[in-house]
């Protein structure tokens, strides 16, 4: 085969953390088991026209029942860590009150099985599955949700921090604000446009309060997972450069500056902005973090919008790069640019970085031998690991790399149409088949490539 020609990883410290990443709604299924409450994603996916082919996470990868098999796959792969999320509506079915013992029990068993397999659990508290009852009370548009979230963090950490040492508060608050509340293409499907900005502040406040709650309940390493895009101006004309800066303020710095500098970027172009009392919350938001989680997929190219548009910028298609199955351009240099950019922007205020997500979707052709040839994923992962090495050579402090995702899973509005897994899932039979990338990664991690 092509094995002799496959790309190889450079050498890494033995302490570097290698992991795979997933999230609860995307893999667990079993949405009514163990007293789980409804989440905004149950509601959104059940609404006609919101997800491709009307697909939902009702069954997903049935990980709730098959977690032993999935942990065995990770143990065999040789990763040191596993990033997963806790479903808030399993632990607090209506987002308030005491913990639901049956919900906690699932994560108890999952964590024990991970530790038995020698895999370090890295738990995300919130990967977008807000309890529907919390949404009905205003969701992230309401300041009270930040306090609800911190109460949930306390319950989760009191039950699990004896075995979970690594905690992530929020996954990609930017996507919740922009797609969930701004454009409505994700749950809860609201179309508030720039009126969604309070959800940025309330999530960040929730992050700060949850960080305090986690530490009080014994959590050892606390961080957040932010999505970042390097932003490229479409030309050097001052209007395009200014538009790119405005987009970067909204997409990147709105969600990172308050955490790392204790101040919001100056969003002068916004007419409807953050809540009045935002400034008083900044010290809470700027809790020291033990690590900064970076989710990286691709850059954005930006030009000035036509006069009179609501937003000062427009996205321009990036050409001249290969594309993933989901049409995202493959730009490994963008990972290095992001890592170096964060390090230069925040300097001593930036804690060590964990790359908490990176990966791609592929078309996964099955070969005649019955193997799944995802050469594009091998090339993608190799190039991004090389880019992260380049950033480390420039002095960026990266401590780990988590691949999105272990399994093909429910890719939100795309349903099951986009496959991000190292392991193929047949959603009719729930059969797991490691792809070529899995076998390749296993050899890299074993150092026997
Ligand atoms: C991330 N965008 O989501 C999430 O953290 C994962 O749950 C998801 O499966 C993965 O990336 C792959 O998409 C994103 O439209 C969803 O820019 C959408 C966007 C970015 C990230």
UniProtKB/TrEMBL annotation:
<comment type="similarity">
    <text>Belongs to the glycosyl hydrolase 1 family.</text>
</comment>
<keyword id="KW-0378">Hydrolase</keyword>
<dbReference type="GO" id="GO:0005829">
    <property type="term" value="C:cytosol"/>
</dbReference>
<keyword id="KW-0624">Polysaccharide degradation</keyword>
<feature type="active site" description="Proton donor">
    <location>
        <position position="172"/>
    </location>
</feature>
<dbReference type="InterPro" id="IPR017736">
    <property type="entry name" value="Glyco_hydro_1_beta-glucosidase"/>
</dbReference>
<dbReference type="InterPro" id="IPR033132">
    <property type="entry name" value="GH_1_N_CS"/>
</dbReference>
<feature type="active site" description="Nucleophile">
    <location>
        <position position="357"/>
    </location>
</feature>
<dbReference type="InterPro" id="IPR001360">
    <property type="entry name" value="Glyco_hydro_1"/>
</dbReference>
<feature type="binding site">
    <location>
        <position position="404"/>
    </location>
    <ligand>
        <name>substrate</name>
    </ligand>
</feature>
<feature type="binding site">
    <location>
        <position position="171"/>
    </location>
    <ligand>
        <name>substrate</name>
    </ligand>
</feature>
<feature type="binding site">
    <location>
        <begin position="411"/>
        <end position="412"/>
    </location>
    <ligand>
        <name>substrate</name>
    </ligand>
</feature>
<feature type="binding site">
    <location>
        <position position="297"/>
    </location>
    <ligand>
        <name>substrate</name>
    </ligand>
</feature>
<dbReference type="InterPro" id="IPR017853">
    <property type="entry name" value="GH"/>
</dbReference>
<protein>
    <recommendedName>
        <fullName>Beta-glucosidase</fullName>
        <ecNumber>3.2.1.21</ecNumber>
    </recommendedName>
</protein>
<keyword id="KW-0326">Glycosidase</keyword>
<feature type="binding site">
    <location>
        <position position="127"/>
    </location>
    <ligand>
        <name>substrate</name>
    </ligand>
</feature>
<dbReference type="GO" id="GO:0008422">
    <property type="term" value="F:beta-glucosidase activity"/>
</dbReference>
<dbReference type="GO" id="GO:0030245">
    <property type="term" value="P:cellulose catabolic process"/>
</dbReference>
<keyword id="KW-0119">Carbohydrate metabolism</keyword>
<feature type="binding site">
    <location>
        <position position="26"/>
    </location>
    <ligand>
        <name>substrate</name>
    </ligand>
</feature>
<dbReference type="Pfam" id="PF00232">
    <property type="entry name" value="Glyco_hydro_1"/>
</dbReference>
<keyword id="KW-0136">Cellulose degradation</keyword>
């Amino acid at each position: 085969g092509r094995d002799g020609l496959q790309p190889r990883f450079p050498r890494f410290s033995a302490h570097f953390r290698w992991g795979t990443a997933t999230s609860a709604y995307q893999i667990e299924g079993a949405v009514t088991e163990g007293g789980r409450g409804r989440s905004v994603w149950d509601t959104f996916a059940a609404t006609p026209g919101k997800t491709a082919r009307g697909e939902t996470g009702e069954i997903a990868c049935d990980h709730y029942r098959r977690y032993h098999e999935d942990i065995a796959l990770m143990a065999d792969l040789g990763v040191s860590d596993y990033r997963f999320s806790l479903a808030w509506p399993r632990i607090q079915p209506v987002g308030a009150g005491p913990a639901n013992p049956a919900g906690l029990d699932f994560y108890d068993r999952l964590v024990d099985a991970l530790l038995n397999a020698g895999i370090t659990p890295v738990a995300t508290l919130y990967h977008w599955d807000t309890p529907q009852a919390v949404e009905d009370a205003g969701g992230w548009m309401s300041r009270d949700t930040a306090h609800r979230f911190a109460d949930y963090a306390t319950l989760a950490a009191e039950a699990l921090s004896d075995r979970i040492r690594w905690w992530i508060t929020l996954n990609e608050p930017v996507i919740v604000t922009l797609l969930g509340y701004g454009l409505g293409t994700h749950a809860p499907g609201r179309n508030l446009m720039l009126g969604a900005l309070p959800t940025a502040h309330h999530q960040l406040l929730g992050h700060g309060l949850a960080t305090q709650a986690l530490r009080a309940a014994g959590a050892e390493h606390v961080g957040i997972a932010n999505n970042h895009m390097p932003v490229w101006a479409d030309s050097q004309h001052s209007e395009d450069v200014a538009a790119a800066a405005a987009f970067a303020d909204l997409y990147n710095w709105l969600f990172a500056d308050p955490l790392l500098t204790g101040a919001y970027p100056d969003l002068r172009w916004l007419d409807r902005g953050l809540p009045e009392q935002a400034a008083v919350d900044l010290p809470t938001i700027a809790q020291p973090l033990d690590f900064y989680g970076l989710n990286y997929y691709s850059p954005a190219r930006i030009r000035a919008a036509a006069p009179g548009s609501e937003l000062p910028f427009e996205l321009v298609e990036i050409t001249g790069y290969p594309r993933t199955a989901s049409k995202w351009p493959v730009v490994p240099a963008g990972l290095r640019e992001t890592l170096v950019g964060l390090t230069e922007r925040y300097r001593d205020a930036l804690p060590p970085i964990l790359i908490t997500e990176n990966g791609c979707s592929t078309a996964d052709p099955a070969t005649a031998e019955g193997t799944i040839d995802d050469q594009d994923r091998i090339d993608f992962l190799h190039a991004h690991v090389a880019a992260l090495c380049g950033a480390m050579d420039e002095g960026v402090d990266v401590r780990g790399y988590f691949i999105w995702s272990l399994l093909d899973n429910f890719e939100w509005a795309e349903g099951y149409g986009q496959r991000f897994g190292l392991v193929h899932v047949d959603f009719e039979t729930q059969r797991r088949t490691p792809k070529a990338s899995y076998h390749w990664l296993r050899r890299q991690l074993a150092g026997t490539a």
